[in-house]
């Protein structure tokens, strides 16, 4: 592909005269040209002194081209074809999507699609769409009546989810698709969602899509299993919890822990790779590079001063560090693909589990801020509002 700023057309040529055949005007022109050479050379030296070392070669190339432009009429030998960083080869490999400057008009012209997991679907925020709150099993009364069970669907799409607020504020509503599903991993982007009565999430994308919001990666990292293994069920200890995820599985390979292997599967050995890289690439392909993609990270679950009953303060701090690590990797991957990363960490400060005003549910049976799995450790309706506010703030920042 040829990036913006590429130029076509032929090379301009200049007619040369033999030395000594011109008049006084030619001598004056030669003097001016020599002054031009001196100025250009001085400028190049100054730029090299001020510029970073990595920029030096590019500046030298640019300087050589500038000198050649000035000296070409003097009758000297032809200038060599100087290779400049960012030249023809770089232009051929340029990706205009990465440098695209989105406007609000661009982003809101078509349809909005929410993709991903429970943090996008609104698990924990209650008020679920009944069609996404079906176990696939009858109650005893329905069995007595001989009813056929409705197909299973536990995607738990909440009426309080950020999706509805972003859609109502910026889109026509009818153009929006809410595909996020509780429990979804990257594999559910490609396939039916965990046996739910759902199409693959990618089927909601098309060239009409102008904005995509993605919340994905936590289930691939097995965060629910991390929480369960760290809870004091069956007498587990801090060492049991942290060691289970960080101890090498292969004594010969220090990076063979469960946590590291999950990171490798999700992100691959480099930016843009792994399961998530394939998803991001497909989003761009299915939308024809016409959609602005916002990747939303995960709030840190626990208040820094947490010292509760379910987890120890050490376990809570360790899980927060893993959450921060996940967010940093998500940011790296998002930016590699030209997407925008929205980090909710700062917005949730003072509102984690164990705070005076939690926006994340903790484990329990009673109370406004307690819930059992799968709702436990998910944002409340107020937490979803905070995510919607972050996306709204990003959209308002666009020209």
TrEMBL record:
List all Gly residues biased stretches. 1-11
Which InterPro entries does this chain map to? SEST-like (IPR037460), SGNH_hydro (IPR013830), SGNH_hydro_sf (IPR036514)
Q: Where is this region: Disordered?
A: 1-27
- Coiled-coil region: none
Where does the record place the SGNH hydrolase-type esterase domain? 114-386
Q: Which Pfam families match?
A: Lipase_GDSL_2 (PF13472)
Superkingdom classification of source: Bacteria
Q: Which organism is it from?
A: Ornithinimicrobium pekingense
What protein name does the entry list? SGNH hydrolase-type esterase domain-containing protein
């Amino acid at each position: 592909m040829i990036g913006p700023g590429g130029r076509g057309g032929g090379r301009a040529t200049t007619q040369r005269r033999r030395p000594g055949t011109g008049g006084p005007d030619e001598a004056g022109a030669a003097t001016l040209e020599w002054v031009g050479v001196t100025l250009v050379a001085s400028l190049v030296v100054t730029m090299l002194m001020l510029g970073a070392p990595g920029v030096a070669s590019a500046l030298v190339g640019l300087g050589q081209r500038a000198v050649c432009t000035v000296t070409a009429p003097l009758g000297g030998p032809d200038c060599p074809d100087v290779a400049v960083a960012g030249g023809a080869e770089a232009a051929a490999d340029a990706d205009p999507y990465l440098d695209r400057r989105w406007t609000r008009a661009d982003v809101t012209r078509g349809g909005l699609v929410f993709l991903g997991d429970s943090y996008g679907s609104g698990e924990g925020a209650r008020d679920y769409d009944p069609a996404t709150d079906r176990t696939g099993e009858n109650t005893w009364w329905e069995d007595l009546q001989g009813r056929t069970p409705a197909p299973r669907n536990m995607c738990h799409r909440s009426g309080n989810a950020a999706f509805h607020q972003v859609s109502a504020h910026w889109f026509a509503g009818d153009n929006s698709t809410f595909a996020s599903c509780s429990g979804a991993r990257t594999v559910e982007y490609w396939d039916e969602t965990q046996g739910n009565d759902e199409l693959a999430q990618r089927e909601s994308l098309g060239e009409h899509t102008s904005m995509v919001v993605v919340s994905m990666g936590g289930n691939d990292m097995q965060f629910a299993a991390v929480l369960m293994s760290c809870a004091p069920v069956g007498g587990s200890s801090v060492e049991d919890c942290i060691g289970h995820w960080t101890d090498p599985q292969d004594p010969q390979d220090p990076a063979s822990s469960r946590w590291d292997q999950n990171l490798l599967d999700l992100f691959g050995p480099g930016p843009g790779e792994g399961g998530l890289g394939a998803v991001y690439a497909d989003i761009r392909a299915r939308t024809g590079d016409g959609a602005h993609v916002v990747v939303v990270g995960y709030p840190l679950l626990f208040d820094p001063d947490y010292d509760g009953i379910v987890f120890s303060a050490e376990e809570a701090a360790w899980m927060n560090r893993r959450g921060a690590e996940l967010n940093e990797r998500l940011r790296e991957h998002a930016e590699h693909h030209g997407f925008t990363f929205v980090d909710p960490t700062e917005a949730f400060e003072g509102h984690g589990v164990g705070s005076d005003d939690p926006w994340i549910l903790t484990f329990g049976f009673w109370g406004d801020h307690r819930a059992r799995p799968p709702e436990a450790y998910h944002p409340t309706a107020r937490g979803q509002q905070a995510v919607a506010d972050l996306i709204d703030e990003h959209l308002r920042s666009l020209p």
